[in-house]
Amino acid sequence: RERGSASATRQESDSNGQTHTRVVKKGVKDFNFGRTLGEGSYSTVLAATDRQNLKEYAIKVLDKRHIIKEKKVKYVNIERDTLNRLTEHPGVVRLYYTFQDERSLYFVLDLASGGELLGVLKKMGSFDVECTRFYGAEILDSVAYMHSRGVIHRDLKPENVLLDREMHVKITDFGTAKILPDPQKRAVGGDGSSGDPMDGAETDRAVSFVGTAEYVSPELLRDKNACKASDLWAFGCIIYQLLAGRPPFKAANEYLTFQKILALDYTFPDGFPEVARDLVERLLVLDPTSRLPVEHIRNHRFFEGVQWGKALWRQKAPRLKAYV
Ligand SMILES: C[C@@H](Nc1nc2c(c3cc(-c4cn[nH]c4)ccc13)C(=O)N=C/C2=C\CC1CC1)C(C)(C)C
After folding, report:
1. pLDDT digit string (tens) for 169-226?
2. Does residue 155 carry a catalytic annotation?
3. Residue 174 Cα to ligand 1 middle (Å)
4. What burial letters (b/e) apply to 195-213, b meaning 16+ CB within 10 Å?
5. Closest Cα to atom 28, ligand 1: which residue?
6. Residue spans of beta strands (DSSP E) within 40-116
7. To pair with 125 at 20 to 30 A between CA atoms, which of 13, 66, 237, 303?
8. Is the interface score ipTM higher than 0.95?
């Protein structure tokens, strides 16, 4: 049985009247499928209810033929392997198990019934400092956890930051993540998560993947290199966008957006809070090794008063107020 596969059990009696417990993997017929929550490039995410325990899940359905035709098998395996590594944090969508039928693959996952952070931001226009601090802290805590597990997300953006029923963060969409080689195997000793921001830089293999234009890092555009610090560049763009209501680098088309990123061509709107400006300026730095690392971001004045760790995830999410 592959790790993470779930099972139901069924009592069966054999010809001698002996009863046996048969382990039966859950399948499509164990769920009532509901509305479509989101469409990926080669997948659909549907709301679903387990008919046995009435629990609600999100089920990502992937069409096997399409995946093979589009040569996306690698991405599906990366997403499953990444999700199987990231099971111990409240800020990451959890994969419970997978199953398949002749046509499709099914990933049974946490349902983030609050939807996309982007949707909430569009409705609000922008967030005030308190809300930006709370959502920024939960996103950072989740990114720090991914990095500690050797995973670089590489496509962090408000569409991939989901909200659960209690309006806490659930990061999703790991099809383009990068799993770093296990440091234990590479270097003798060491605690595993090296503090090196360039950790994971792909110098050898050509990187075909580039994230979403507005959030892609300069190093990915310049040297096709994604490293842990690339996620912190995207984090800086998200903090800016929550307060300003728009991303820092946005132009008429992708090419012009890339030019603005490489030239660090962005400005703060009038009234952008000073303390947040200082943080963003230390994240939107062209050289990834000069970007503020996670521990220094946690200690930045902007996050003063944030209780990191479990307390962050236990507190009530702040009522969303626009930053006018
Ligand atoms: C980013 C993603 N969108 C979404 N992915 C997931 C959702 C999800 C939920 C809503 C939603 C809920 N209520 N209202 C909207 C809107 C979009 C969603 C969810 O609940 N659970 C797991 C998900 C994804 C799991 C994935 C790691 C395997 C795309 C657009 C790619 C389909």
Report:
1. 999 999 889 999 987 665 544 444 456 766 666 544 445 567 789 999 999 999 988 9
2. yes
3. 11
4. eebebbbbeeeeeeebbbb
5. 173
6. 43-50, 56-63, 95-100, 104-109, 115-116
7. 303
8. yes
